[in-house]
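Can't paste images in this forum, so I'm doing it all in text. The chain is below; anyone willing to post the predicted structure tokens underneath?
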Amino acid sequence: MKGFDELLAQIGIEVVFNDTDMPFVTSDNPVIWFDPSTPEGEMRPYGIDLNGPIVLMFPVAPDLLIYGDTSKQKQFAQHGLIYSRPSRHNAVREMNALICRFAYESVYADRSGFSDLVREHADLSPVIRTETIPAPKGQFLYHQFVWGARTHKPKWNRPDK
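Text version of the structure:
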């Protein structure tokens, strides 16, 4: 939570009201953040530098999305929460593509027509990779999110069952 608090301190937040004919989708992993300056092929999920550019997106409804951006920090500090509208139809599609890319297993929409977009991003999602690095007094575990194949999480084993 401390890391997320630091992330929120870096961005300005606005509510995006979508009145285009393409609704926002959401997923089973709806709160996403990333470095928008990284080319898409090099993007790492949740891989940000707190001193660099950050975008946060949280779709709330087909017509509302919470959008955070470091470029809006001063505006947010001065005026508080503002409302905006997508500048173009493609902006909604680009946001939806990112939402689909960060999904784990499910994407939700209030209408059909997103099968191709979901299929385009269906093979990879954010997964955690752990590396063991030798250290003078043992080992150091390094965790990072990467794009990888989804794995089914093991069911909880309860000893009393």
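The chain has a mean pLDDT of 88. Residues 2-122 form one domain.
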